[in-house]
Amino acid sequence: MPVSIGKIEAMSKSIRAGLFFISFGLLFFAVVLFLIQQATFKTQCAVPPNGSTINDFPISAEYEKEIAQIETILASPLELSYGESVFQVSPEIFLQVIDSITATSSVQSQLKNQCSSDHLINYLAGRYDPAEITESVVCSVDKAAISTYLQEEIIPRYAQTSLPIQPIMNEFRFEEGKEGIMLDLEPAVDAIAAAACSFTDRVVDLPLIAVPEPKPSLTNLEIMLQKLIDLNQDPKQLTEIYFYDFRSNETLNFARRDKADFPAEVAFTAASTIKLPVLISSFIRLDQAPTALIRRQMELMITESKNDQTDWLMSNVIGGNTAPLLVTEDLRKLGFKNTFLAGYFYSQAPLLDLVMTPANQRTDSGMRPDIYNQTTPKEIGELMKMVYQCDMLKSGPLLETFPNQLTTEECGEMTTLMKANHLPYLITAGLPEQTVIAHKHGWTEEADGLLHTMSNVAAVYTPGGDYILTIFTNHPINLIFEKENILFSSISAAVYSYFNPDPCPEY
After folding, report:
1. 139: three-class secondary structure by DSSP
2. pLDDT tier at 426 (50, 70, 90 boundaries)?
């Protein structure tokens, strides 16, 4: 049945109305969806993207609070440690700038840019990939202020001064010194500057430098020895000391009489200490190792101070009636002007030469040293030093003066002979047991039958260092051996303590 035109028109209107409503619905939905997406975008674009940081600190939508927290952290105290001492310091002393406003404004500007229409289009198209925001709260410090603070507040309070060994004068000994500790200033300033602008690491272990213990003061030793001599010798008695420190190459040579300084290099009777030059001159003239007989004679000369064996060596090894003068000639080649041997030791031996020296021409000492043998503490001490240098250091004047006549091995034999001198008195008496000492002692009754001069020259080998010590003393009336042994041993003990001080007491 044919459809009427009216019905067709009615249907057309209905379809158009339906399409309109459908189109309107779709448009409305699209608008709503757009608005939702736009709102979502605005929410997301107002938040710093994942991975965004301020001073390497992750930030979020609450970046303003987080930036404020960073500023608070930068204004918080630093913890400094100086060795075992820990303390806090406010950074306001040296902070110049903490600028969080600029950082906040920069983040806001970048977020505003992220929310632009261009980024909205990319977001709607699925291409939205905002860049991470990386900003810093500007922090700067005044390094000069840090340096001033450390120098005025920290170093005076915490620095540990190094100390040399300390004399305990009333006990005539020394106590250990100590190593010091000081701040390494420039690295410390840099470390504090870095920590002051860090919010993660605000603890600084201040860099320290060990300050070596200063070398001992030879003046302290000299004062102590002077006091010892003054306490232990009689009026008009004269004592002279020569000392050499192999660690520092320092020398001490002084004399005391009546509790006052007396010009050193006094001429003393050498007595048996002159047997050290005899030993050296004997080795100079040996072309091969000493025979058993010669070695035995040397042992008796050094360890027991036998005069007969000394004369035998001069007669049979050095050679002839003028052998004592050959010993003196060897001494002159070594540069010694005041040490000599002018005759044999046997009774009534002829005087081979009346030797004048700078020391025995002095008139101030009032002493009458033996015209057969003399020395000064300095010269016999330096001769002992030469033997040590030849033996231990493989160098020195003995080898230089007698290059084809002396060897280091022979110097070693001389030292071995003197180490076998186990006399338990004088310098040895002031040393701990087992201390190695190579030495020669000397004393003798003079024409009046009394003892006026005692002497000992030694190379002492200790854990704290090796040294030469020579002690000569002369009494115008009479020396009492036991009393002078206290003088020698006390001096020796003080010098040993100078090289091997007692541990510091613990409190």
Report:
1. strand
2. very high
Predicted TM-score (pTM) above 0.85: no
Cβ burial, residue 459 (10 Å; 0-12/13-18/19+): buried
Place 118 in a pLDDT band, splitting at 50, 70 and 90.
low
Per residue in 434-460, pLDDT (tens digit) is 999 999 999 988 878 899 999 999 999
The pLDDT-based confidence of 113 (bands split at 50, 70, 90) is confident
Chain position carrying tokens 């500023």: 71
Residues 6+ apart with CB under 8 A from 499: 247, 462, 464, 465, 467
What DSSP element (H or E) covers 473? Answer: strand 467-474
The rounded distance, in Å, linking the Cα atoms of 250 and 256 is 20
Question: pLDDT band at 507, cuts 50/70/90?
Answer: very low
String of b and e for 181-199 (b: at least 16 CB within 10 Å)?
Answer: bebebeebbebbbebbbbb
Length of the chain: 507
Q: Please state which of the ranges 24-28, 96-100, 249-253, 478-482 shows the lowest mean pLDDT.
A: 96-100
The pLDDT assigned to 100 comes to 61
Question: 180 and 163 in contact (C-beta within 8 Å)?
Answer: yes
Question: How many Å is the Cα radius of gyration of the chain?
Answer: 47
Q: What does 78-97 look like in DSSP terms, one character per residue?
A: EEEEETTEEEEE-GGGTEEE
Task: Walk me through the domains of the chain, giving residue ranges and CATH numbers.
Answer: 53-211 (no CATH), 218-499 (3.40.710.10)
For residue 41, the model assigns a pLDDT of: 62
Q: Are 84 and 72 in contact (CB under 8 A)?
A: no
- Burial of 168 per CB tally in 10 Å (0-12, 13-18, 19+): middle
How many other C-beta atoms are found inside a 10 Å radius of the C-beta of residue 370? Answer: 19
Q: Give the whole-angstrom CA distance, residue 289 versus residue 410.
A: 8
Q: Which of 130-139, 219-228, 350-359 has the lowest mean pLDDT?
A: 130-139
- The Cα–Cα gap between 343 and 323 comes to 8
* β 78-82/203-205 pair status: parallel
- Going by pLDDT thresholds of 50, 70 and 90, the confidence category of residue 196 is confident
Nearest to 467 by CA among 447, 437, 424: 437
Alpha carbons 29 and 81: distance in angstroms, whole number:
67
Residues 365/432, Cβ–Cβ less than 8 Å: no
Q: In angstroms, rounded to a whole number, what is the distance separating the alpha carbons of residues 378 and 389?
A: 16
pLDDT band at 357 (very low <50, low <70, confident <90, very high): very high
Identify which of 425, 402, 405, 414 has the alpha carbon closest to the alpha carbon of residue 298: 414
Q: Which of 506, 473, 502 is nearest to 489 (CA)?
A: 473
Question: What contacts 359, CB < 8 A, 6 or more positions away?
Answer: 265, 266, 267, 337, 338, 374, 376
